[in-house]
Amino acid sequence: MNVLVVSLLAVPLLILTGCGEEALNDKSKTEAPMMLMDEFTSIDELPSVLEEGLTPEEKAELREKILPSGSADELAAEEKFKQLLEEARTGDAKAQNGLGVMYYTGEAISKNGAGQILENDPELAAGWFFRAAEQGYADAQFNLGLMYANGEGVSQDTAKAVELFQNAADQGHVDAQNNLGALYYTGEGVARDVDEAIHWFEKAAAQGNLDAQANLDAIRSMNN
């Protein structure tokens, strides 16, 4: 049986959580032992007193035993969040979209009203996607379209998803083109129009989108 590939997939979160616009707690620095009270080391560094007299190989071995796994990744995520938040507040659409992705995926720390840490925050993510989408940023239009299509962070509204995918597709966004074609084919959120679906699948396939090409192949095989 031929199956139409519809790539209405959740965004790899980009991911979405909710501490408002407050910066993350600073986990990048930790106070050293009392005898080193004037020395602060980042989370991926060892206090110098522990490294005294060690060869580079011995230092590397000690780091592997002591430092928490993934600490460098956590630090990078925190610095990324801070930079994106600063830029997003100035109205930078790309940063707003990036911040939305971090909240959607849970890469950014968020809490609910009771102070509990959330795994991710679709509502806050949708808010940042909306800001960027309003400025015509295609990636944000696509991401917000996915959220409306899936009912994540916003009430499900396929017609709104079609509108957002259309706006992004008109700018050449390949995944939006494929998803727009899929919705035209199924008639969700828009009047069913196979010719229009094929039009958008062809545009996406011409950019190398494999899902769009699979959709075209499935349609053509059903018509043979």
TrEMBL record:
Pfam families the record matches: Sel1 (PF08238)
Domain of life: Bacteria
InterPro entries documented for this protein: Sel1-like (IPR006597), Sel1_AlgK (IPR050767), TPR-like_helical_dom_sf (IPR011990)
Secretion signal span: none
Protein name, entry field: Sel1 repeat-containing protein
UniProt organism field: Nitrosomonas cryotolerans ATCC 49181
